[in-house]
Amino acid sequence: MRKKDLLWLLTLALIIVFLIHPTTHIAFVTATKNHPYIMGFIKVSILATMGELLAIRIANGDYKKPYGLLYRFIIWGFLGMVFALVFDLFASGVTATMKKGLLPGGDSKFFFAFFTSSLMNLIFAPTFMALHRITDTYIDLGQGTFKKIFKVRINDVVNKIDWNGFIGFVVMKTIPSFWIPAHTVTFLLPSEYRVLMASFLSIALGAILSLAKRKK
After folding, report:
1. Which positions, given as ranges, span the membrane (predicted)?
2. Residue 112 pLDDT exceeds 60
3. Rounded to an integer, what distance in angstroms lies between the CA atom of residue 85 and that of residue 52?
4. Which of 7, 23, 105, 182 has its CB surrounded by the most CB atoms within 10 Å?
5. Are 136 and 160 in contact, with CB atoms under 8 Å apart?
6. Calpha distance 156→112 (Å, rounded)
């Protein structure tokens, strides 16, 4: 194990300690309830960026700074704010439709979690994943430079993306086999922990995708 691996693990360990220590745990929950968008930005930007770095480590055998790391960090943060909205949007919608009898399950927490996860991942996730693939490709083609990124044409971005792989693997395989089961667990948790759980899941998925790419 290299020094960079230890640093990555140490960072993750410090985050976990912060979350489980009684004093900081209370502060975290309070901040999440009072400032969901800000906390969504912080949680997802940090943990998802760590997931990207881990994916690079697994795929290439070493940590390498990707193009436009700061831009990727900011985009993840923005998506974290979107998650804070979308998670409540789908959770509230499923609760309402279950009460009206439009979905089965009654007051079952499991059915609530399963339906929320399924609908969110089937309706929202492909759009989010495609948007993120596009933003990453913009950054890559612009070599992480602000001026170059804005000179990249959308046609070049669309042609660069492996849409067959995106649909065939990311959408058709990871959504039913990973995201729906994982987010079913997520929606069994109290609402203040759901975006955080999604952030940790991004680390796991980054590892899975990198292993699959390396195997291929």
Report:
1. 37-57, 69-90, 110-131, 161-181, 193-212
2. yes
3. 23
4. 182
5. no
6. 42
In 3D space, the residue among 29, 7, 5 whose CA is nearest the CA of residue 18 turns out to be 29
DSSP summary character for residue 216 = -
- Choose among 132, 90, 86, 134: nearest CA to 113: 90
Q: How many percent of the chain have pLDDT more than 90? A: 67
Task: Compute the distance between CA of residue 210 and CA of residue 193 in angstroms, rounded to an integer.
Answer: 26
Cα dihedral 138, 141, 144, 146 sign: negative
Predicted pLDDT at 42: 94
Amino acid at 124: F
Contacts of 84 (CB under 8 A, 6+ apart): 36, 37, 39, 40, 195
Residue 35 one-letter amino acid:
H
**How many domains is the chain partitioned into structurally?**
1
**And the tokens for 167?**
């649909």
User: Collapsing DSSP states into helix, strand and coil, what is residue 65?
Assistant: coil
Q: What count of Cα atoms within 13 Å lies in the side-chain half-sphere of residue 192?
A: 12
Domain housing 141 = 3-215
Residue 74 has a pLDDT of 95
pLDDT (tens digit, 9 = 90+) per residue, 159-213? Answer: 999 999 889 988 999 999 999 999 999 999 999 899 989 888 878 776 666 655 5
CA distances from 6 to 9, 17, 68, 130, 177 (A): 5, 16, 24, 33, 30
